[in-house]
Amino acid sequence: MDQLRARRKAGSTGSFSARDLRALRAKARRRPNDFAQTVPLMTLEELVSAKIASGDPYSLRWKKKAPPQIAFQLEYDTEAALYAGFEPNALNAYADALRRCWSLFGIGRGDRVAIFDYGTSPVSYLASRSFTPYLRRGAADILGCLPVCNDGAANLSQRAVDIVRFVRPRVLFLRADCLHPFAAEIANGSVALASYLDALVVVENEAVVTAAARDSYQAQFGVPVYRLLRADAAMFLAPECARCGLFHIWSDLYHVEILAPDGEDRKGRLVITNWFAASFRAIRYLSQVEAVLEPRGCPAGAKDLRIRA
Amino acid sequence: MTKKRRSVSRDRMDRWPAERIERYQLRQLTMLLRYAQRELPFYRERFATARFDPREIRTLADFARVPSFTKKEALAALKEKEAFPAGLEKLERSGSGALCMTSGTLGTSFLYLPENWASLRGDSLARAYRWAGLRRGMRMLMAAPAWHSLAVQETRVLQRIGATCVIPWGTFLPHYAPHFLDAIMDVKPAFISIFLPMLYALLAACRGKSIAPARAFEGVKSILVVGAPMTPLSRVKLKEELGVSDIFEGLGNPEGLTAMECAFHVGHHIFLDCCYVEIIDPRTGQLLPAGQRGNVVVTSLIPHGSVYIRYDTEDLGTILPDRCGCGRTWPLMEVYDRRANVLHIKGQQIVPYDVRLCLDEVPELVNIPFAVIRSDAGMERLTLLIQKPPSGNLNLKEIETKVSSLLRHRFDLEAKQEWAEELPQRWKGITVIEENEWRAARV
Known about the structure:
The complex is a heterodimer of chains A (309) and B (443). Chain A has helices at residues 2-9, 21-30, 32-38, 44-54, 88-104, 122-125, 139-143, 157-167, 179-188, 211-221, and strands at 70-73, 83-86, 112-116, 146-150, 171-175, 199-205, 225-231, 236-239, 247-249, 254-259, 268-274, 285-294, 305-308. With 309 residues, chain A is an alpha/beta fold. In chain A, the strands form 3 sheets. Chain A has a 6-stranded mixed β-sheet. In chain A, helix 2 crosses helix 3 and helix 8 (157-167) crosses helix 9. The longest helix of chain A is centred in the N-terminal third of the chain and has 17 residues, at 88-104. Chain A is globular and about 55 Å long. Chain A starts with a helix and ends with a strand. By secondary structure, chain B is an alpha/beta fold. Helices cover 35% and strands 22% of the residues of chain B. Chain B has helices at residues 2-11, 18-39, 41-49, 71-81, 115-131, 149-161, 177-187, 196-208, 213-216, 232-242, 352-359, 396-411, 435-442, and strands at 97-102, 109-114, 139-142, 164-167, 191-195, 222-226, 246-252, 258-260, 268-270, 275-280, 294-300, 311-319, 332-338, 343-345, 348-350, 370-374, 382-387, 415-420, 432-434. Chain B has an 11-stranded mixed β-sheet with strand order 4-3-5-6-7-8-9-13-12-11-10, sandwiched between helices. A 4-stranded mixed β-sheet of chain B has the order 18-17-16-19. A two-stranded antiparallel ribbon of chain B has the order 1-2. In chain B, a hairpin with a 5-residue loop joins strand 7 (246-252) and strand 8 (258-260). Strand 1 of chain A pairs parallel with strand 4 (164-167) of chain B, so a sheet runs across the interface.
């Protein structure tokens, strides 16, 4: 809290919503070092402190006078619950980020896509305008796919197996904590996953399953397993690319940095700045994700930023 | 212009005279049957097997000749095809939509809900949210998770009315009540749409945090509950405890049923623009008159997505004989429970709702969770498992005597009561527990 007060006093934030996004974006592009040195980080702890101190559920991040048209409680185990608020433009841009993830996983027109995650996960609510008020086009609407979702509760993993068997989706998005019970159900039912789907994508908020665990599940399932990184506080999505094995990030949507501790050269916490959430700012959000920034140049997206996580 | 006229006309439809409604429904049903015959293999095969020709339907009474089916038969069709679609739906080439899942003891089925289904059903449902007080600019807490068919409809409702919304993390299972409570206290919605077991779980969460429910629900004007029947006294007590202006109850299923309460709270108006409801005797399949309990058979009047024609929901319900004082002409109905939860005791058919009505007469037990323990052998008496009321100095023996006396008076049955500090998590929201499971859990 002291840190927050000090930052406010220094005029660096005023509130999390008071920054000029366009100027910041220009600064991040032209003088990234200057951007990193002068713009303070935003941490989860600060968001919690801001919420508790102000009583504002949006931790002083909501910029408009009118309340958000839609707000989601976020998946963080923090002392106080946190929320993300949206107006339609930001919601649509966020859905477009999911659409890009789907495209990178090879999903296209006419495909069925299964999502075994909670309805309040962006992987679910950005999938279709049928699911979410004020969303003009979800990932499935843009690509022409048919989505099917269910709660990603580990004890209901049999439902994920039913979806796979009867819907035969191209890709199944699965919450990371359901991986083990899902694998058990697959083994119990002797389901040959490769006969039903092309790939499985493991989804997690501010964490990723290790590459070793991914490879082990891949061998067990007999289908490619990819990872999808979420950082909901920054409305961030980054898919693991099948071609380069790195997570792709779109620079028109996000700016990322690595905050490497002293002595570490490249590996550090991923810092995210979101460019599309104009009314609900996420500037230099310090995520829990450990990553390494890699050079651009993947054939699947030559201009995309890439991280190894 | 045409569109505007039609919209105004539909808004007034709940006050149309009975003859006009019947004409409308007959027109919709005959159109639907022709569509099913033409496009949907599931019905084409069933009609052929039953030697039924949709062109024979000339009156609403004729419609009872259409063969009905249950979830088991829909699931069998899915299993036979080994993949969705099962023949109850025509997939649309353009436009968006989603697949919704329903799960249960019999298995999982999938319903295809394209956008035109969501608009027709959602626009119809918006009427109920207006009855319950949702207005432009108000904030609603939406409990149905994205994938749920109710969320698909509420998405349309919210946009149509112009309300804003907050969606709590998790899902509507009682385990997530603390998240829901945070959302209510943080964002202060004026309107809550929620599943009844979750509302009870929220009360328990308030007790757990030593927060007065009325404080937690400060600013909430109306609540719309679905998912379980609420007795009149439960409503009164809940309103009092939560400090809200009113609580409305809705009935519905993705297969077609929408029935909602208005402010008169004397039953649920059947939304005749979207569904046609019959009550049948489960043994004979014959239609039952208003006032008699039987299986609820529903037909969705929406010729898009998964189409359910004479779908026996296996819910126990009745169409009420009385008209509502609100002046709306749409008939009223009640649904009491799943047919599977009916208890057969000494020649009587009793559902937990009937027991709840008796418990409500004991002030200490209003809104206190309970379950009936059912035995395989012929039941001679009622065995109830009741959660101990939170107030400390209660004379449980005295309460037991009162409950026994009420049940004896109402059903001429003896009752045994057992008390639990809290109903086990696995049975929260469950009203009938099988005796063998109960015994196993106690060992």
